Amino acid sequence: MTEAATRLLMTFDSLPQSDQHEILARLLRRANIVSEESTPEWNEYKNTRRRELIDREIQGSLTPDETLELETLQRQAIAYRDAVAPPPLEFAQELHRRLLNAQSRVDS
User: Nearest CA to 79 among 34, 30, 46, 37?
Assistant: First the structure.
């Protein structure tokens, strides 16, 4: 274990709960413990639960289990949105092209 990891573990309990949840969620995502679904079934119950968890996160009262649940629901919501109504990329691509052109004129 690295020195940084050892320090993190030693101070983990003293971190704010929101930081603990974020660290835990990131580690679980990296370890692929939090499952990814390609095109999840989405329904009103899941969306209502997702909103409840977001409210609890804002209030700072989310438990570690709820943090994982929210992470999963957020990914499912995005996957569902992307499957049924993918965001248009043409505008972003055109804007990117214009910004690159403007930057190249400034650099010349």
Answer: 37
45-73-32 Cα angle (round to 5): 145
- Both structure tokens of 83: 């499957």
How far is residue 79's CA from residue 72's CA, in Å, rounded to a whole number? 11
60-65 CB contacts, 8 Å cutoff, 24+ apart: 60/16, 60/17, 60/18, 62/17, 62/18, 62/21, 64/20, 64/21, 64/24
Q: Convert the pLDDT of each residue in 65-102 to its tens digit.
A: 999 999 999 999 988 888 888 777 787 788 888 888 88
Residue type, 5: A
**pTM of the entire structure?**
0.51
Give Cα separations from 88 to 83, 85, 92, 97, 101 (angstroms). 12, 9, 8, 16, 22
What tokens appear for 100 in the block? Answer: 């690159």
Return the residue matching tokens 């804007």.
95
Rounded to whole angstroms, the Cα distance separating 50 from 70 reads 6
